[in-house]
Amino acid sequence: MSSKPPTFSIVTCTWNSAATLADTLASVRAQTCHDVEHIFVDGGSTDGTLAMLDAYPGNKKLLRDVRGGISRAMNEGIAAASGEFIAHLHSDDYYASDDVLAHVAARLATSGCDWLFGSIAVLKNGAVSTPPALKPFSYFALASGKAFIPHPAVFVRRSLFARAGVFDERLKYAMDIDLWLRLAAFSLPATLDRPLAVFRDHPGSVSSANKVMAREEEFSVRRRHARHAPLAFAIYCVRYYKRMRALRRQH
């Protein structure tokens, strides 16, 4: 067996995920690019999740009984990874086609970038949406809230995490936005204008109260980074106050 590290480390966080995990596993196994390790970070599942993971073939690592929330789980996966690029594919999401990793590897090779993102399709009520075309990326667009980076479609060079840091485990909602702003301050991402993953939309999973708290935490995160693009943050503030007024009227 080769001692060369794999190109990709795919981190999947699980907790009682047996109902949806099979699609996640199948989508990784079906990839035409096989230069992959699959890391599972389980939060103490009591259903059939662990049995599914024990039976899963291939190059894998299983971290059991990791407590402390999703950010900590994702960070534990990053710490365990040996691949050149790391992606997080949660246990209710799956890759959109069997050539996703091949296309990502080719785009990373030609761009020379330290990270990349594409688009996601959304699975809702049994139908999969077609995502809109990606718009040109800039730090200004990210800082002003106009650029959306979908977590399941992000691939990050492991060495960039060493420079920019990992997920802030104090955050409950906006840990991904905080990380994207830190990564982009070091290195702008490449983009791949195609759906890389399918995200399951669970109706009613986020209450109005949670939406308010999520917006408030996002505002706090963006204020941390305002010095990098003060005008962009000012534009974001206008949009934030309009959205918060609309959310609070719903109560």
UniProtKB/TrEMBL annotation:
Q: Which residues form the Glycosyltransferase 2-like domain?
A: 9-134
Annotated GO MF terms:
hexosyltransferase activity
Gene3D superfamilies listed in its UniProt record: Spore Coat Polysaccharide Biosynthesis Protein SpsA, Chain A (3.90.550.10)
Q: Which domain of life is it from?
A: Bacteria
List the CDD domains hit by this protein, alphabetically.
GT_2_WfgS_like
Output the Pfam families linked to this UniProt entry. Glycos_transf_2 (PF00535)
Q: What is this protein called?
A: Glycosyltransferase 2-like domain-containing protein
